[in-house]
Amino acid sequence: MIRPYRQELKFVVHHSAKTLILERWRRYLRKAPFTNRHAVTPILSQYYDSPDLAFYREKLDGVPLRNKVRLRVYDLEFRQGATAFLEIKHRDNDRVKKFRYKIPDFRESHLDLDRWLPDCVALEGAFHILFQRCRLRPSVQVYYQREAYEGVVESDVRVTFDTNLTGLYPGERLTSCLLNDRSRQLMPDTLQILEVKATHGIPTGCRRECSRRSFRQLQSPSTSPRSSCSACPSTTRQEFTHGTRDAVLPRQAVSTG
């Protein structure tokens, strides 16, 4: 499946801001259908990069045209037989186009992109170009919990809050110990990632609210992503990377991942 370009804005917000935002926007939003009764779903992604971490470096340097490749499940682990998704995201400033291939019966071999190709002509072509040019390999896993809502009237609008961002090495299993390991946390517990997405443009009210509250925007075309990392006071937390929080690798993962 190839989704049309949509606009995506990302902000670092304090956890208290979520309550205020939902109070003001609740009549315009409903929980996303793929979430539980609390509008929450787990997300685990395996990201892929070149041997010299080209995608990661493009993100840090604020390159406006860039790509990322990931394998994603809405679960705590890549379980045999689960539904997974291979995704390629192409970013053009704050506009994002996604190529998505559904894997209805996940197998461990799907983690090795050198051993299979998606059964989709459009995605296979896009993936093959990136794979050959960048020599993609597993770089990092990232887990987080997402609270997700969609527009009641403007159904193309998505509003999400991501918490408990945790970095993992390729192939590493998520455990309760890792979730409680502060060295694996990608940002402080007091902060969340707010994302507002829309195919037909971000609603004016959403923009005004985020601007009025002076939320710190991530991946703004006019702002270097390096400066955006100042929202995370711990240097070690900045060294993990994943696509939108992008490819945050611990230093030792750079050499072993």
Structure described in brief:
With 257 residues, the protein is α+β, with helices and mostly antiparallel strands. Helix content is 21%, strand content 33%.
Describe the structure.
The chain is an alpha+beta fold. It has one domain: Beta Barrel (Hypothetical Protein Pfu-838710-001), CATH 2.40.320. Helices cover 21% and strands 33% of the residues. Strands 1-6-5-4-3-7-8-9 form an 8-stranded antiparallel barrel. A hairpin with a 2-residue loop joins strand 5 (84-92) and strand 6 (95-103). It is globular. The two termini are 29 Å apart. Residues 220-257 have low confidence and may be disordered.
In total, how many domains does the architecture comprise?
1
Order of helices and strands: EHEEHEEEHEEHEHEHH
- Tell me the strand percentage band: 25-35%
Overall SS class: alpha+beta
Tell me the major beta sheet. 8 strands, antiparallel, barrel
Separation, N- and C-terminal Cα atoms: 29 Å
**What's the CATH C level?**
Mainly Beta
Radius of gyration: 17 Å
- Oligomeric assembly: single chain
**Silhouette:** globular
Trace the largest sheet across and list its strands: 1-6-5-4-3-7-8-9
CATH topology: Hypothetical Protein Pfu-838710-001
Low-confidence stretches: 220-257
